[in-house]
Amino acid sequence: MDERVERVLARLEELEGRTSGFWNVPCTTGLFLNKLIRSGDMRTVLEIGTSNGYSGIWIAEALSHTGGRLYTVESHAERFQMASENFLEAGVAPWIVQVKGHAPEIFEDFREGPFDLIFVDATKLEYASYLEAVLPMLASGGLIVCDNALTHAGELEGFFEMIEKRSDLEGSLLSMDNGLYLIVRR
Question: In sequence order, what are the residues at sequence separation of 6 or more whose Cβ sits closer than 8 angstroms to the Cβ of residue 120?
Answer without folding.
Answer: 48, 49, 127, 130, 131, 144, 145, 146, 147
